[in-house]
């Protein structure tokens, strides 16, 4: 009997034994293609020798030194690589051990910024419905995923509110132009600032491309420029959560590069260390850093394992490989192939409402009725059944039960490692189509 407190205590867990390239193998011997990199984590696949050697070398040299006494070379070099050229004005990096921890640090950093510049009345954050920013209490309170929030609602802080996300498939009106949709969402955000009192807002927080909850939703063109304007008008910060969509996943190192705006604060995690070590990060903009430096002198936040040497060494090697091997271009070109492959095989399926994504970050949304976009009853467990069918077909894809239109929606994420080749992507699209067929029986609509 397992003594680990698992997600599911009613069944014995499957033991993963080995990982090699795109493949994961269970202790029982069977293997699957890791077609979602876990939850968009394993950007280099498994067993990368360079990363393993970098980790080992770091552990042999220095496994740990507390940041109250020391920084370490790996953390300094990783920060230099990420923000040395100040992309979008981001000037310093803080390293944590997960996406949630990064989000907590971003919340505190943004509050501290306003304390430093003499605006202590700012205490509110505006995020979006159906969003997910992590499972720790601050990040959970910030997020708008009702199913995850609900059990803990009585113990969440009251400084968070939510506006509509930019989710064209579910939110854009019939015949409504992108410009009109953007204007409507910006007006809603403006109204929320007014309702709260504009000078009480610390930040608007959004995922640049939504991963968790609703699955690979990129905003319509102009959306991020419009929300940036609303934030600027009221002196609030823009925090972009790129824990899932960042670090090359959508074809540029930062997903915001494709939106024509940069955040004041950004969170990163999964693709940062590619799963080789638990590591997340916060990238802080110049004006935020300068305010801390001129004010109290530094970040009033920290953890025992922040900027852990072995975690930073792993992430540094992952990021060097992404650059040296031209993997961003690869994500862009292979991403088009994966998207086209999924669309071709499943775009017309009766139960597939939407195929959406960017780079190597794709989702399928399943619906009971394509015309009305009605979701399945949660009792059908559609995304879990698709996940199970896909495993039987030899691919691991990530199931999501987000909330759409107040009901639970079914999506799965396909997010293969950046090292996948065209043949592997075609195999993933084929197996995905087989899995969908296994669950619904019907094919084209
Ligand atoms: N933000 C986003 C956008 C995420 O997708 C996730 C993880 N799914 C988190 C934050 C939390 O990261 P972690 O699970 O590493 O705490």
Give an overview in words.
The chain is α+β, with helices and mostly antiparallel strands and 445 residues long. The chain has two domains: 51-324, 3-Layer(aba) Sandwich (Aspartate Aminotransferase, domain 2), CATH 3.40.640.10; 326-440, Aspartate Aminotransferase, domain 1, CATH 3.90.1150. It contains 15 helices and 18 strands. It has helices at 37-40, 49-61, 73-83, 99-116, 137-142, 146-149, 168-171, 178-196, 223-233, 270-273, 286-294, 309-324, 327-346, 382-392, 422-440, and strands spanning 16-20, 23-26, 31-33, 90-96, 124-128, 160-163, 201-207, 209-210, 217-218, 237-242, 265-268, 280-285, 352-358, 361-366, 398-400, 403-404, 407-408, 410-414. The strands form five sheets. The protein has a seven-stranded mixed beta sheet, with helices on both faces. Strand 1 and strand 2 (23-26) form a beta hairpin. Helix 3 (73-83) packs parallel to helix 12. The chain starts with 15 loop residues before the first strand and ends in a 5-residue tail after the last helix. It binds 4'-deoxy-4'-aminopyridoxal-5'-phosphate. Residues 39, 98-100, 103, 132-134, 207, 211-212, 241, 243-244, 269, 280 line the site of 4'-deoxy-4'-aminopyridoxal-5'-phosphate.
């Amino acid at each position: 009997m397992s003594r680990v407190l698992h997600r599911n205590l009613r069944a014995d867990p499957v033991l993963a034994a080995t990982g090699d390239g795109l493949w994961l193998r269970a202790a029982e011997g069977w293997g699957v293609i890791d077609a979602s990199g876990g939850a968009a984590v394993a950007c280099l696949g498994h067993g990368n020798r360079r990363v393993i050697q970098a980790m080992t070398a770091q552990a042999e040299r220095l496994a740990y030194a507390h940041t109250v006494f020391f920084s370490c070379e790996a953390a300094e070099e990783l920060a230099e690589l990420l923000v040395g050229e100040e992309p979008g004005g981001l000037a310093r990096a803080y390293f944590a051990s997960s996406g949630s921890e990064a989000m907590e640090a971003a919340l505190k950093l943004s509050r501290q910024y306003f304390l430093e510049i003499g605006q202590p009345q700012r205490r509110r954050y505006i995020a979006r419905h159906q969003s997910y920013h992590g499972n720790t209490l601050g990040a959970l309170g910030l997020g708008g995923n009702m199913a995850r929030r609900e059990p803990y609602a009585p113990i969440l802080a009251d400084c968070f509110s939510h506006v509509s996300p930019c989710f064209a498939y579910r939110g854009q009106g019939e015949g409504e132009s992108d410009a009109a949709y953007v204007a409507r969402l910006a007006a809603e955000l403006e109204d929320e600032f007014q309702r709260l009192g504009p000078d009480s807002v610390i930040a608007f927080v959004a995922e640049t491309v939504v991963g968790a909850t609703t699955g690979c939703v990129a905003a319509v063109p102009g959306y991020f420029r419009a929300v940036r304007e609303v934030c600027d008008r009221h002196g609030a910060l823009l925090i972009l959560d790129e824990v899932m969509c960042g670090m090359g996943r959508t074809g540029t190192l930062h997903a915001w590069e494709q939106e024509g705006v940069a955040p004041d604060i950004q969170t990163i995690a999964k693709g940062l260390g590619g799963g080789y070590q638990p590591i997340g990060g916060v990238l802080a903009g110049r004006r935020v850093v300068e305010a801390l430096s001129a004010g109290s002198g530094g970040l009033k936040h920290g953890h025992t394992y922040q900027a852990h040497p072995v975690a930073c060494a792993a992430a540094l090697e992952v990021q060097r490989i992404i650059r040296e091997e031209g993997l961003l271009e690869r994500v862009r070109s292979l991403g088009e192939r994966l998207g086209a492959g999924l669309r071709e095989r499943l775009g017309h399926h009766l139960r597939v409402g939407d195929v959406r994504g960017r780079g190597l970050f794709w989702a399928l949304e399943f619906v009971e009725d394509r015309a009305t976009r009605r979701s399945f009853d949660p009792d059908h467990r559609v995304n879990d059944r698709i996940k199970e069918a896909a495993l039987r077909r030899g691919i691991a894809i990530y199931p999501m039960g987000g909330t759409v239109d107040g009901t639970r929606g079914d999506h799965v994420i396909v997010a293969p490692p950046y090292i996948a080749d065209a043949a592997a992507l075609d195999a993933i699209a084929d197996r995905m189509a087989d899995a969908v067929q296994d669950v619904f029986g019907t094919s084209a609509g």
